[in-house]
Amino acid sequence: MPSFDIVSKVQWSEVDNALNQAQKELSQRFDFKDTHTELEKVTGEKPGVTITSSSEDRCKAAYKVLEDKLVKRKVSLKHLTVGEPASAGKGAHMTITIKEGIESEHAKDIVRRIKDSKIKVQASIQEQQVRVTGKNRDDLQEVITLLRGAGLPLELQYINFRD
User: Fold this and answer.
1) How many Cβ atoms from other residues are within 10 Å of residue 110's Cβ?
2) What Cα–Cα distance (Å) separates residue 156 from each residue in 4, 105, 137, 144, 159?
3) What is the DSSP letter of 90?
4) Are 39 and 53 in contact (CB under 8 A)?
5) Is beta strand 80-82 parallel, antiparallel or unpaired with respect to 86-88?
6) CB 151 within 8 A of CB 1
7) Other C-beta atoms lying within 10 Å of the C-beta of residue 38
8) Based on C-alpha coordinates, what's the Rg of the chain?
9) What is the DSSP secondary-structure string of 118-155?
10) Model pTM?
11) Which end of the chain is more exposed for a tag (fewer CB within 10 A), N or C?
C-alpha cells in the first residue's frame, strides 16, 4: 500500500551558513561598530541562537539581519520561536529557539484534519512524524494538497513516498 511520512525538519547546514553570513555582515556594518553584537549558536536540548549586544535595539536589528540571511537560504521562519530582548547588566540578550519535529498537539491536529476530510487514508503518529497510508496514490496526493492549504504554523515536508 502506498504511504508517505509528514515531517518538519530544519536544514542545519543552511542555518549554520546563514549564521556565519550574519556574523560577517554584523562585523562589517558601521551601525554595529563598538556595540559588541554577537550571534552564538546554542546546541543541546533546545537548539537555537543567542544574540548579545549593547542594547535591545541592536539585538532586534541583529535578528533582522539573521532573519534576512535565513530567508535567502530558504530556511522557513516557521521553525523559529523568538524571545523578547532582555537587558542584562551592561548589555542585552535575545534568545531564538529553533523547533524541529512535529509536536504531539500539532500531530493530533494533522491527523484530525485528515480524518475530517473523509479521504480514504489512515494517518498515524510515529514519534515526531505522521505516516499516511492509503490504497491509491491520488488519495495521498489529496492529503498533501489539503495540508499545504491548511495554513499550519509548521513547515512540513513530505518524505519516504512508497508505492
Assistant:
1) 24
2) 12, 15, 19, 10, 10
3) T
4) no
5) unpaired
6) no
7) 15
8) 20
9) T-SEEEEEETTEEEEEESSHHHHHHHHHHHHTS--SS-
10) 0.83
11) C
Burial class of residue 85 in the structure, from the number of CB atoms within 10 Å of its CB (0-12 exposed, 13-18 middle, 19+ buried): buried
Which cell numbers in the block locate residue 39? 550571534
147 neighbors 110 (Cβ within 8 angstroms):
yes
- CA torsion, points 79, 82, 83, 84, in degrees to nearest 10? -170
Residue partners of 54: CB distance under 8 A and separation at least 6: 34, 35, 36, 37, 90, 91, 92
The closest of 147, 72, 145 to 106, measured between CA atoms, is 147
Task: Judge contact between 75 and 14, C-beta under 8 A.
Answer: yes
